[in-house]
Amino acid sequence: MRSILFMLWLTLAVACGANDPPVRPAGDAGIKIGAKGVSTNSGAVATNGTFKVGLSL
After folding, report:
1. Among positive and negative, which fits the CA dihedral 27, 31, 34, 36?
2. What pTM does this model have?
3. From 40's CA, which of 13, 18, 31, 48 has a CA 20 to 30 Å away?
4. DSSP 11-34
């Protein structure tokens, strides 16, 4: 019974995501020079046009 429900759930999940726009990754990096010295930053973002998920380090 569990395997049947899992297969139905998986089929539904795959079918719902079939028409979504592709996920576009992007990244950036930078160096700042200021009164406190030199600092660096970097980040990564993934977006599909509607939602945006990012990580900044």
Report:
1. positive
2. 0.49
3. 48
4. HHHHHHTTTSPPPEEEEEEEEEEE
